[in-house]
Specification:
With about 525 residues, the chain is of the alpha/beta class. About 35% of the residues lie in helices and about 20% in strands. It has 18 helices and 23 strands. The longest helix has 20 residues. It is globular and about 75 Å long. The structure holds glutamine.
Length: about 525
């Protein structure tokens, strides 16, 4: 029978609940237990797909084509498991389904209410995910902070769920913050006590407390927290600020958190196999070299907007014992070529990531031109590949005025056009080409050599594609179309094999990189960057 762990947060937002949930997931996996993690987001959007990255950070895409919260990326990277649509549910989705049922007449004349109809729908989403994966442990993270009006139906649903499933089958982990007062030199426990009191007022007594802190928690404060929050002393877990998020599982393990959970849930305590994770962390903490890589995009003020790209670059660095330093370049500042050159002069590689809309495009084209002309290792992702094709068409293949129809309704050469299947699509929510599709790589190509195989599967999120009418012209000029969809209709990878590393793909490899298994395209980029350095 599956055991449930509910993770809530109190005191402040941005506590890193997602990392804590993911880290606990890692500790279960290291004991050969299967685990899934599900995120409930209290906002009304059906999914984050329509939100600006400035609002929400990156939109993470799963194999089954769900546009999800970026925490899903942490869940997948820490547990090395692929999740899907059932793993991320918003209030919007819950309400939409309840309203659809009401319109169909499913409620047989009842007054439809938050309790029981919305809470039942939430509980059914928990059960649906358990049924799909049949895990030993099912971790559920509730977005937001305790006390928010928005998250109340979720909190009420887990209260019901916990009592229905019975003692010993579910527990709550509450994450809080211990602020440090420099004037008195103290870590303060009161906000955590208050937060637990609020949680209790909703009927939930947490079994475990995870406290974010910048300093070690003294014994007296630990005892105070245990006493006032009614949790055992060994269930007060300290979570200090760390250099790398990948250290968190080891810090939790060192305090016996997983064993406390196993004991409370009546599960067998197994010896964890953490050697490879420990090796990873020791590589992260002791790099032998470093390398500076630029990310040239338009959401550079919020690094969360590109979190999977950043993590993928770091993962590739770990494998080479190299610390990757990110230089953020706002593509709008590259509109002027001289400035673009200056900004790129001190980096060993550049990534042009995905994006939408015309703002900053000419700057991205300058970045790619500079990389191509100066043999600066380059990786283009989705929009980054579309820009690489436009740049090559304009500056090498003689198609002056080449552009994407996303940026110009009527370009001289529409080398990037809306996909046929997109022409009649109305509305923006969930309507892109989403999720995993196969791609066939050209034998002997840079991409095929990097992957070590010719058939790959990667995740997508786009509406536009390379216009096949121009492929011959552009490839005659030297750009190699080294990856195509299985029917040969959709360009998926382009490359310039004579350069050290110039590869761009229509898909998003960043969603499949793992800390201990870097993605081949990021590995290729970092290897080339280190050779250059
Ligand atoms: N805007 C481009 C498209 O829709 C690229 C999307 C992306 O980079 N994710 O095709």
């Amino acid at each position: 029978m599956t055991k449930y762990i509910f993770v809530t947060g109190g005191v402040v937002s941005s506590l890193g609940k997602g990392i804590i949930a993911a880290s606990l997931g890692r500790l279960f996996r290291s004991r050969d237990y299967s685990v899934i993690i599900q995120k409930f987001d209290p906002y009304i959007n059906i999914d984050p797909g329509t939100m600006s990255p400035f609002q929400h950070g990156e939109v993470f895409v799963t194999d089954d084509g769900a546009e999800t919260d970026l925490d899903l990326g942490h869940y997948e990277r820490f547990t090395d498991t692929s999740f899907g649509q059932v793993n991320n549910v918003t209030s919007g989705r819950i309400y939409q389904e309840v309203i659809n049922k009401e319109r169909r007449g499913d409620y047989l004349g009842a007054t439809v209410q938050v309790i029981p109809h919305i809470t039942n729908e939430i509980k059914s989403k928990i059960v649906a995910a358990t049924k799909q994966f049949k895990p030993d442990f099912h971790i559920i993270e509730i977005g937001g902070t305790i006390g928010d009006i928005e998250s109340l139906p979720f909190i009420e649903a887990i209260r019901q769920f916990k009592s229905e499933i019975g003692i010993g089958n579910a527990l709550s982990v509450h994450c809080t913050l211990l602020p440090y007062l420099p004037t008195s030199g103290e870590l303060k426990t009161k906000p955590s006590q208050h937060s637990v009191n609020v949680l209790r007022s909703y009927g939930i007594q947490p079994e475990i407390l995870v406290c974010r802190t910048s300093k070690p928690i003294p014994k007296t404060e630990r005892e105070k927290l245990a006493l006032f929050c009614s949790v055992p002393k060994d269930a007060v877990i300290e979570c200090r600020d760390m250099k790398s998020i990948y250290e968190v599982p080891l810090a939790l393990e060192a305090q016996g958190m997983c064993n406390v959970v196993l004991k409370m849930l009546g599960m067998e305590e197994r010896t964890p196999k953490l050697e490879s994770w420990e090796n990873l962390v020791s590589k992260i903490k002791n790099p032998k070299t470093s390398v500076k890589v630029a990310i040239a995009g338009k959401y550079t003020k919020l690094s969360d907007a590109y979190i999977s790209v950043v993590e993928s670059l770091k993962h590739a660095g770990y494998a080479d014992d190299a610390a990757v330093e990110i230089k953020w370049i706002n593509s709008e500042e590259c509109m002027d070529y001289a400035n673009c050159k200056k900004l790129l002069s001190d980096v060993s590689a550049v990534v042009v990531p995905g994006g939408f809309g015309v703002r900053g495009i000419e700057g991205k084209l300058n970045v790619i031109r500079y990389a191509r002309e100066n043999n600066l290792p380059f990786l283009g992702l989705c929009l980054g590949m579309q820009c690489a094709v436009i740049e090559y068409a304009r500056n090498v293949a003689g198609l002056k005025g080449a552009n994407s129809k996303e940026f110009d309704e009527n370009p001289t050469y529409p080398v990037i056009d809306l996909m046929l299947e997109q022409k009649n699509v109305k509305g923006y929510g969930g309507t892109m080409r989403l999720g995993a599709y196969e791609c066939h790589l050209k034998k002997g190509s840079v991409a095929a050599k990097a992957y070590g195989k010719e058939v790959i599967s990667e995740r997508h999120r786009h509406r536009y594609e390379v216009n096949n009418e121009y492929i011959d012209k552009i490839s005659d000029a030297g750009l190699v179309f080294s990856g195509m969809s299985p029917d040969g209709m959709l360009a998926e990878v382009v490359e310039l094999p004579n350069l050290d590393w110039f590869v761009a793909c229509q898909f998003h490899p960043e969603f499949k990189s793992r800390p201990d298994k870097p993605h081949p395209l990021f590995k290729g980029l970092i290897d080339a960057a280190l050779r250059r350095k």
